[in-house]
Amino acid sequence: MNILITGATGFLGRHLSKRLFELGHTLCISNSTTGNLHNYNDFCLRYADTKFDVIFHLAAKTKAGDYCMYHKGEQWIDNQLLNTNMLRYWYNFQPQAKMVAMGTGCTYHPIDGFLEEEDCIAGDPEPELYTYAHTKRMLLIGLRSIAEQYNLKYLYLIPSTLFGTDFVLHDNHFIFDLIKKIYEGKHKGEDVILWGNGHQRRELIYVDDAVQLMIDLLSIDNEVVNLCTGKDYSIREFAEIICKLVDYNPDKIIYDESRYTGALVKKLSPNKLMSLAPPHFKFTPTEDGIKQTLDYYISSRK
Predict the structure, then answer these.
(1) How far apart are the C-alpha atoms of 104 and 83, rounded to whole Å?
(2) What pTM did the predictor assign?
(3) Rounded CA separation 131/72 (Å)
(4) CB contact at 8 A, 238 and 178
(5) Which of 77, 113, 212, 267 is deepest in the core (most CB within 10 A)?
(6) Do the Cβ atoms of 113 and 267 come closer than 8 Å?
(7) 229-250 CB burial, b ≥16 within 10 A, e <16
């Protein structure tokens, strides 16, 4: 297949590109220097004459931690621009292509229970992530509206937190942050300070698993699907797994409850995914994925 990927230099994009290339697909890689999606005319000039079978729209303006709290305006403008330009390009130049777009778990209204796809734009998102969440909600509404009017095909995927090898060392998504802080605490004697009380719960999906599912689900049209395992852990439990791997005493960890912690629980429902995924598919165990991610960090920092 001939495939276009936006945001291809990001964490997910790098892993997806590598896997698709291994499978023999022809790839066009779009980023800020090779087809600037902020500039509609520039983007179309590069890609209008090439016909794609699939477009993976991964580009987004966001970062982990408390970034979304302090960059609401630029997030709104940038993400609306990226998404609107992508949707315009899709129906104007690539109506034959399947659009696969990525959502985010923060689009959901937080509840103490499984988050089901039909509720992904119901209620209010977390206040701290309100702006970014709504840009992703608007992306889904745009996909649905354009697909209905122009008879196009899309797939909207909502992943839990992605993790795995080949992350950039300054990435501070919580699991990478835990690995870096606990490893440095062990080997440099630094205090390990984690945000919140450690009882907030999070779910991970190993990035190679997510990539395989993205490929496996390409035959599914005009649906919203969570990419998730359905198994969550507390931050303290994640920390204990890492502490065991690096031989660090978890009782030494300091939990700073004055810092941003996000939702207390965020767990996506895997029911729809499991009904659509190949029966042979198996998730990478979380502990194994953390070990591989830790090993990558250790080798990269050297």
Answers:
(1) 14
(2) 0.92
(3) 6
(4) yes
(5) 267
(6) yes
(7) bbebbbbbebbbbbbebeebeb
Cβ neighbours around 83 below 10 Å, total: 22
CA 190 to chain centre: 30
Determine which helix (DSSP H) or strand (DSSP E) holds 135, and give its type and residue range.
helix 130-150
The pLDDT score that the predictor gives to residue 5 is 96
In CATH, what class is 2-162+204-227?
A: alpha beta
Tell me the two tokens of residue 131. 């702006």
Where along the chain do the CATH 3.90.25.10 domains lie?
166-202+231-263+278-301
Name 202's Cβ contacts closer than 8 Å, sequence gap at least 6. 160, 161, 174, 175, 232, 233, 234, 235, 238, 266
User: Would you say 146 and 97 are in contact if contact means Cβ atoms under 8 Å apart?
Assistant: no
Contact predicate 203/232, CB 8 Å: yes
pLDDT of residue 63: 64
Give the residue range(s) of CATH 3.40.50.720 domains in the chain: 2-162+204-227
DSSP state of 112: S
pLDDT digits over 206-227, tens only?
A: 999 999 999 999 999 999 999 9
The answer to whether 132 and 258 are in contact (CB under 8 A) is no
Q: Which residue(s) pair with 59 in the sheet?
A: none
